[in-house]
Write a structure and sequence with these properties.
With 211 residues, this protein is of the alpha+beta class. 43% of the residues lie in helices and 16% in strands. It has 6 helices and 7 strands. The strands form 2 sheets. The protein has a 5-stranded mixed beta barrel. The protein is globular, with a radius of gyration of 22 Å. It starts with a helix and ends with a helix. 27% of the residues are buried.
Length: 211
Amino acid sequence: MSRRNRAVLIGFTLIGTALVVLFDRGFVSPRWSDLLTSRGQTLAADWARYQGRSFLVARIVDGDTLQLDIPDLGEAAAKVRLVGIDAPEMGGAERQRMYYAEEATAFARGVALGKHVTVYLDRQAGSRDRYRRLLAYVQLPDGRFLNEELLSRGFAYADLRFKHGYYQKYVQLESGARALKEGLWAGVTPEQMPAWRQKRTTSESDSDGND
């Protein structure tokens, strides 16, 4: 080994040792440790309360959001965001209704509203989103999963922004719906997609054009 390479190796070793000491003594971002601990505690509590248990669907907000008939975080009903998908939003006072939102919402209402569904959480995704909604896979009474039904029938996009246990499966389900032009895929334009999907589509198009 040359003298220069030996010096570089020694330098990296010393830096690594220093970082280990700093972490051990708590000098490096203790808030990250607190954040991870808090996330783990929340997941554990939600796992005990919701995992594998059945609840009545009290309301369908839109294709990927619903409410369960059980108190949660001081509210009368638990707000659930379906893991791994992004359905068009119904909008409101400040947000415009998205393309195919009514169809996606109607489908979810038809198969889930007033039904007892079973909730499953995902350790990789965590149990709450930034709005404190419960992140879950929702199994319908007949055994199908609402998340997957919305994807395979073209009522939702595979949410590529966040990792979860069925990430690759959901990508494939969306790919199949696109190929068959199911649901929104029969006529959606890039401009009608969610903002995050528009950026991804533009980026992929630019990349293809530079090949």
